[in-house]
Amino acid sequence: MDISQLQITFLGGGNMCEAMVRGFINNGGIDPKKITVSTPSKRTENTYKELKVNHVVGDNKSSVKGADIIIYCVKPYMVKPVSEEINSIVSEKGNPLVISVMAGVTIDTLSSVLNGYGRCARVMPNTPSLVGAGACGYALSPKCADTDGELVEKLLSSIGVVKKVAENLIDSVTGVSGSGPAYVYMFIEALGDAGVVNGLDRATSRALAAQTVFGAAKMVLENPDVHIAQLRNNVESPAGTTVSGTSTLEKEGLRACVIKAVTAATDKAKELGKSN
Ligand SMILES: NC(=O)C1=CN([C@@H]2O[C@H](COP(=O)(O)OP(=O)(O)OC[C@H]3O[C@@H](n4cnc5c(N)ncnc54)[C@H](O)[C@@H]3O)[C@@H](O)[C@H]2O)C=CC1
Ligand SMILES: O=C(O)[C@@H]1CCC=N1
Question: Which of 52, 143, 212, 236 sits in a 20 to 30 Å window from 94, CA-based?
Fold first, then answer.
């Protein structure tokens, strides 16, 4: 399957769209001329002009004509009005694969606002897709063919790691990796601030903090058979500096706090889904 030949239309040109578009062009080898971004205003025109993709303003319907793949990148509450604009085109014989990245919006909801259209996938990407380091979960409508799964995997693996999950777990993917970059940015910010508190200059501390998170993540990914606690123990010399730090994090409730945060985000995704 040659993804470089596909016509892809994004509905909504905000942060997540831009991350995917840049990822597809820079890491997926997709020709910008095959990509169309449809937005309600000219606010993002310069961004997409610079990327040399087609930019349609205020006309979702014409933007999806001839598309092989339509990607909903609008806010969850926009699913119905946007679908009303495009559903006459979607159900014509063009037969595009419709992908939603909207938090909480179920495949049933998407299919029903598209008058029962079946070729739908629910995807939860994240913004590091922009640098080809995304983490993405997806689920397919039972009406999709096996080749649709292959297509989704091929397309999304060009911008990061892709995991297929049961649809009822997409909200959990949202809590962990969809929202996850924001938690990690907070951690890097805090680590950098802590370096400044302890005398490092801001730029040095930021660079050391970010590289430490990157390096630790690389160690976890490249050693799948080693328990993460073992990797941590390898840093914790007996009566050394690290164990003073990690026991403080434990005492202050880092682990419980992260679990609460992910559960709050997962619950919020479920709530967004119910309001559609
Ligand atoms: N930002 C993120 O990290 C992630 C976002 N998502 C999902 O992606 C979707 C978009 O989120 P963001 O990009 O963060 O929001 P955003 O607010 O940056 O982008 C939404 C875009 O939709 C456009 N829009 C509004 N009405 C429209 C219409 N009628 N037709 C076409 N476009 C319209 C807006 O102009 C805006 O550019 C949401 O459903 C969100 O749940 C999913 C994963 C991660
Ligand atoms: O905050 C949000 O609702 C979106 C979905 C996952 C990340 N950003």
Answer: 52
